Amino acid sequence: MVITELYIRNFGKLSEQHFYLRDGVQVISGENEFGKTTLHAFIRAMLFGMERGRGRAAAKDDFSRYEPWDNPGNYAGIMRFTCGGRSFRLERDFSRHTRHTSLVCENDGEELSVEHGDLQVLLGGMTAELFDNTVSIGQMKAEPGQELSDALANYAANYYETGGGEFDLSGVLRSLSEKKRAALRELRREAEVYGAEQEKLTQEIKYLEEDIRQLRMEYREKEKELKDLENAESREETERSTAPHGPAGIASRTKAALMAVGGFAMICMGAAGLLQSRGMPGGLPEIMLALITGAAGLAGLILFAAGIIKLRARTEAQSASAERADVQNADSDTQRRLSWELERLQSEWKEKELRCGNIREQYEEQGKSEKQLRLEEQCRALEIAEERMQKAARVTGASMDRRVSRRASEIFSAVTDGRYHSVEISRQKGITVWDGVRRIPVERLSRGTIEQIYFSVRMAAAETLAEEPVPIILDDVFAFYDDKRLESVLKWLSRQEKQVIIFTCHKREERMLNAAQGK
Amino acid sequence: MKFIHIADVHLGAQPDAGPLYSRGRSRELWETFERVIRVCEDEQSDLLLIAGDLFHRQPLVRELREVDYLFSELTHTKVVLIAGNHDYVGTNSNYRTFRWSENVFPLFGEKPQYVDFPELKTAVYGLSYHSREISRPLYDGFTAAGAEPFEILLAHGGDEKHIPFDRRAMECAGFEYVALGHIHKPMILKEDQIIYSGALEPVDKNDTGPHGYVKGEITASGVRTQWIPCASREYIHLGIQISPEDTTGSIKREIEKQIQEYSNENIYKIILRGKRDHDVSLDTERMKGGQNIIEILDETSPAYDFEKLYTENADTILGRYIEQFRGCREGSTEYQALCEGVEALLNSRQ
């Protein structure tokens, strides 16, 4: 492809200007502010169109930068070029409202369609990005504070690994990992919300467990109380079951007293006293006793102890059991109260245990939220993306290395007039040049030489990546070249069967080129 | 013999019902249940059949008292219920000890049993869950014993871990009617014979569609049933088709329009599908507005023409990256990785 004419209607600071170009190397020189950069941008805009950016970026994009101030309605131009032996006329109107593109083959007047990719075919697959990274060459730029050699090393590594420098690999990896970090942050936030809910449930479970513990303790206490009561009772029960000894004991004691004193009254008093001392309510039994003892006295000594005592003992036993029943009554009230209490405590704690179980169930059921799952998936996706991006970079880098390196070395050798034999580019070892004796790291090279490596890599890539030779545009590239190197590079360019357009603010390039071409 | 068949009332559940209704949702489940009891009373139904999961978890005594009080007010209707997998009869279950009103007939046994209503010429069969899961097909081979002319099976389950059953066998088991519970979506397995009434109210955000109960009548000439919607709200999944022209604002408007159509009384989950412009990032939080939306799922993918990108960039990292995802399914994690990577690459274009 050879550009033959540029006609700028209105584009940036240029208006109504014609530029006629020819095949081979040519120089467009002019002083600063002449509009070289504008012309360069115009060529790019004609070849690839110019999309208006959206949003904030729009303020700084090419469309806004080159939109004419005075005559924005006539933001347009024409480019003539030849390709495959045929001439074409490409006309573009960039204006916001009358945007239009036409492509006509001037040999037969055939109207081609840019929308349908006819121009792309003529450009042989060259894209705007590829153009920017291969044939359209400006001065190498380093970030502020960055060594040019580092800039070149980064550039070259990226250039290789992305297959032409169209993309910024470290930027890509950075943005992927930033996105992953953001997703992880959100995931943590989400987990906190989830955790807070779980925590609430855990707390509730804890409170319930504490309640249950209390209830159980209370239960045990009451249970013990009840047991004590029951024990007390059963002790009495045992006493009662050994009761026959009681009356019999009394009887023997009475018998002894009787033997000793031998008097009825004494018997009566003794018996009464005995009864009273046992805490018996007086009254009837006493009267009965008196009567009985009286009768016994009357009946004489024959009616001796055994019978009376038997009777008395029976009475005694009877009254003792009545007493016991009373105590027992009071006891069984407490017992009943206690067992109710126990029942209540048990049902209360059982209910709480049930609630506790329900909350535990809820705790276990509470799975991750859908948002969490989605974020987790995004993290996984971003991890896969990172991993495969690196793999893609390795593959691309290896293939670029195979295809570009040798050619870049050839060009570099030609440009340096054989001073260096080859250039080697690797992510690990950085960029080194080989002068036939030593391998010199790029840091030790002059700015001019570094620019020449840059130039060589791009030229080599342009050859390998672009199917159709596209004009090479060199915008102020040679400022740091010494005369000898400049001569070599111009010689090399002249040998390439390509259109080369050199923009410069110096006269040097034109002079030398004229000399080289024998003009 | 007139009956009403409900299931999966899930009293005590606290379903997420969106920002507007979650707070009162638990109460709504009780209200709807009461409403059905009232229907039983108004229509003087003979039987209220509850096919399991009346409660969401182990019922507390006070909850049982509430329910029993409602039952006790029924002047005519008799209630038969079984325990499902949620309110299964555990060792500490209050179901074991609770004393029900006279008109309530729980079938809480682990083994099949039945309750006989000679005055209705009806016998109701059933069994209850005694554990959270039962994977044995307990209903297979379970046939009507012929105790009464009309025989009903009250059953709960139907999936792998909850008494799977053979529908064909059930059809031939001799029951006039099988009142099923467990599956929350109302479903007729056999017309007028084997029916999932569905949950009375939807209790999970995936219980979409209408919910209600079955009203039926068994006469000598056969069974007639009717499904009656009665839930106070519905979960609605709204799929919204996105095109590359859409923005957060335009999608928000579309969601508002659609929700207005379906009424904001319902509970929404929005799923965004289709292709969005790759430069547009959709802010789903902003789309919610003040509407009763539980969540908005963004399933859109950026509108990339991967084939075209690949052929144009075969030798560059972009092409090699796309190449690694050959044959990956749209919507998969891999596909998402593809989109993320391509987006990052295209954004890095210098």
Could you walk me through the main structural features you see in this protein, from its secondary elements to its overall organization?
The complex is a heterodimer of chains A (519) and B (350). Chain A is of the alpha+beta class. Chain A is 60% helix and 13% strand. Among the domains of chain A are: 1-135 and 466-519, Rossmann fold, CATH 3.40.50; 148-167 and 376-450, no CATH class. Chain A contains 14 helices and 13 strands. In chain A, the strands form three sheets. In chain A, strands 2-1-4-5-6-7 form a six-stranded antiparallel beta sheet. A four-stranded parallel beta sheet of chain A has the order 3-13-12-8, with helices on both faces. In chain A, strands 9-10-11 form a three-stranded antiparallel beta sheet. In chain A, strand 1 (2-11) and strand 2 (14-20) form a beta hairpin. The longest helix of chain A is centred in the middle third of the chain and has 73 residues, at 169-241. The two termini of chain A are 25 Å apart. The model of chain A is unreliable at 246-254, 260-283 and 303-307 (pLDDT under 50). With 350 residues, chain B is an alpha/beta fold. Chain B has helices spanning 18-43, 61-72, 167-171, 248-262, 284-288, 306-312, 317-323, 333-347, and strands spanning 2-6, 47-51, 78-82, 104-106, 113-117, 122-126, 150-156, 177-181, 187-190, 194-196, 212-219, 222-229, 235-242, 267-276, 293-298, 301-302. In chain B, the strands form three sheets. Chain B has a six-stranded mixed beta sheet, covered by helices on one side. Chain B has a six-stranded mixed beta sheet with strand order 5-6-7-8-10-9. The longest helix of chain B has 26 residues, at 18-43. The relative contact order of chain B is 0.11. The model of chain B has no long low-confidence stretch (mean pLDDT 92). At the A-B interface, helix 4, helix 6, helix 10 and helix 11 of A face helix 7 and helix 8 of B.
